[in-house]
Amino acid sequence: MKGVLHHLHLRKRGAHGTEPFPSKKAGIRLLDHVALAAGIIGPAMTLPQIYQIFHFHNATGVSVLSWAAFAILDIPFILYALVHRNSMLVTTYTLWLVANLTVAFGALYYGGS
């Protein structure tokens, strides 16, 4: 148990040395921007699925259970990001939550499995 507590103490002390956002280092700043873009582009990739469901009023083959589970599993990540004050993760997982819920509700409404 002492090892775990010691690790948490070191982690807490080390948190003050984290990189600012955006970082002053070019490589890390690039990674920051790529991660932000991925956090927006990823959920946007569900737009074709949403379009297919709502435009054609057909959710055949779309699993309500899977998409609802994806949405529910986004919630702990949003809470984690809020607790750690990480706005990039809050944005990403909130977008995922909205996208996943939209597909789940569309599948439920239009008769997915």
Characterization of this structure:
By secondary structure, this protein is mainly α. It has one domain: Monooxygenase. It contains five helices and no strands. Helix 2 (26-44) runs parallel beside helix 5, helix 3 packs parallel to helix 5 and helix 4 runs antiparallel to helix 5 (87-109).
How are the secondary structure elements laid out?
Blueprint: H1 2-14, H2 26-44, H3 47-56, H4 64-83, H5 87-109
Helix pairs in contact: 2-5, 3-5, 4-5
Q: What share of residues is helical?
A: over 70%
The rounded Rg comes to 19 Å
Helical region count?
5
Number of domains: 1
What are the salient characteristics of this protein?
about 110 residues; mainly alpha; Monooxygenase; 5 helices
Quick overview:
The chain contains 5 helices and no strands. It has helices at residues 2-14, 26-44, 47-56, 64-83, 87-109. The mean pLDDT is 88.
